From TrEMBL:
Pfam families: Caroten_synth
Keywords associated with the record: Membrane, Transmembrane, Transmembrane helix
InterPro entries: CruF-like
TM helices/strands, residue ranges: 25-43, 49-68, 75-95, 115-136, 143-165, 177-196, 208-226
Organism from which the protein derives: Hymenobacter swuensis DY53
The keyword Kinase belongs to this UniProt entry's keyword annotation: no
Protein name, entry field: Carotenoid biosynthesis protein
Length: 227
């Protein structure tokens, strides 16, 4: 008896191979931007030329992360919007009161400002919250502990960012001293955002997220070592 006719379907490996190629291209673009920026800031006699691309780098990084987010549902977009708005607002409160992070002011490096805060600072909060939240998902521990780990990853990256940010006019601290309150405030806000990340229902898989965190960590840590 002849076997029933089967419909042809694409090979099972076609999609993963295509996604792998896209992922390699995205990683290459991010690596190119960060290596160029690292070399320019570390060894150029005119770092201002490279600093003007910081806002573009932030937007490029976010765009690539969004491209690798599966099923961008309304819940996902609401998460993105909420984190960006909260991130911006806590910076406004921080600038105006000094109660959350200490006394600091923003320089021009992060782009145009509104209420004395760079408009793109919310994008930075989203990138960090999203990437560290994704990294913590690898740990087989309860949700709240994952939120704590992700918040600690955010604080760890901020520790590496601070000396570079001060040197290249991202922001400045009163008396040029980074207060301990800054890291406490970062942890508190990050923890709230990570708990929110865990509660929102959307597909929490992104093959680019860990690379973004790693390349930023190496970028700021390396520059900090050269200062």
């Amino acid at each position: 008896m002849p076997e029933p006719t089967q419909q042809l379907s694409p090979p099972a490996t076609a999609l993963p191979e295509a996604q792998t190629r896209r992922l390699r291209w995205a990683q290459g673009i991010l690596l190119l931007f960060h290596v160029t920026g690292f070399l320019g800031l570390a060894f150029s006699q005119d770092p201002s030329f490279f600093l003007q691309f910081v806002p573009l780098n932030l937007l490029l990084t976010l765009g690539l992360l969004l491209a690798f987010q599966p099923r961008r549902t309304p819940a996902f977009w609401s998460f993105c919007l909420m984190v960006m708005v909260v991130g911006f607002l806590v910076e406004v409160v921080g600038i105006r009161t000094g109660l959350l992070f200490g006394q600091y002011t923003y320089g021009p490096t992060l782009g145009p400002k509104w209420l004395e805060v760079p408009v793109l600072i919310g994008v930075n909060w989203l990138i960090l919250t999203y990437c560290t939240g994704m990294l913590a998902r690898y740990l087989p521990i309860p949700g709240f502990l994952r939120a704590v780990v992700a918040a600690l990853l955010m604080v760890g990256l901020d520790i590496c960012i601070e000396p570079v940010a001060i040197r290249y006019d991202f922001w400045h601290w009163q008396y040029d001293v980074i207060p301990l309150l800054n890291f406490k405030g970062w942890f508190a806000v990050s923890l709230i955002l990570q708990v929110y990340f865990n509660r929102v229902e959307f597909d929490k898989r992104n093959p680019l997220a860990s690379f973004v965190y790693l390349v930023q960590l190496l970028f700021f840590f390396g520059l900090g070592m050269l200062l």
